[in-house]
Design a protein that fits this description.
globular, Rossmann fold, S-adenosyl-L-methionine, methyltransferase activity, alpha/beta, methyltransferase, Methyltransf_25
Length: 208
């Protein structure tokens, strides 16, 4: 999320950390697989990959990726979410920051994969999307991947309508020097077809 008045802050007031964590704990307790995003990302990278979880929230995905042997950094602007992440995994790196200004966090351009799951991009402040994607692309190493998951309609978003379309998103990625490699309809890898309500996209920063 970003430090401007983003859509996430408008929905939650920046106080959703504990309830968000309880929601996923209930899902896990009822037998749901809550690690789909981590499993998907782990299949794309080599062991001990450097991963940035952008808009990491309570750290659910970054903690799981660390358990799988990857080196994970989480960034979020919501302090209530990061408080949960730090409590659950105090040894991991958790950074409070604006995704539109990740350059201010001193991150090196050595990440093998940058993840923006959980509708991070649609819930940014309006007008900051291209800047955020540019910032995330800038910390990828050549050949690194930007992986995003987002709803494309009201049924898959906590919003009355999608704030932009996939054509806009792909144009922002292209402007940031990223190339679309794969697109799916779910984190399980179901094929994407036009009209799907959700898209999991894998963009690559080409080798120079």
């Amino acid at each position: 999320m970003t430090g401007k008045r983003d859509r996430w802050a408008e929905l939650t007031g920046g106080q959703a950390g504990e309830e968000y964590a309880r929601r996923f704990a209930r899902l896990a307790a009822s037998g749901h697989d809550v690690h789909g995003e981590a499993t998907f990302c782990a299949a794309l990278v080599e062991p001990a990959a450097r991963v940035l979880d952008a808009g990491c929230g309570t750290g659910r995905i970054a903690v799981r990726l660390a358990e799988l042997g990857h080196r994970c950094t989480g960034v979020d602007v919501d302090a209530s979410m990061l408080a949960v992440a730090r409590r659950q995994a105090p040894a991991q790196e958790w950074l409070l920051g604006d995704l539109a200004r990740t350059d201010a966090l001193g991150l090196e351009p050595d990440f093998d994969l940058v993840l923006a799951a959980g509708n991070v991009i649609p819930l940014l402040a309006a007008g900051t999307e291209a800047a955020v994607i540019g910032q995330l692309a800038a910390v990828l190493r050549p050949g690194g991947l930007l992986v995003t998951g987002m709803g494309l309609d009201a049924a898959h978003l906590p919003l009355p309508e999608a704030p932009f379309g996939l054509a806009d998103f792909d144009a922002w990625c292209d402007r940031a020097g990223l190339t679309l490699r794969q697109r799916y309809a779910t984190w399980s890898g179901d094929p994407y077809v036009p009209g799907c309500g959700y898209a999991v996209s894998v963009h690559v920063r080409p080798d120079r």
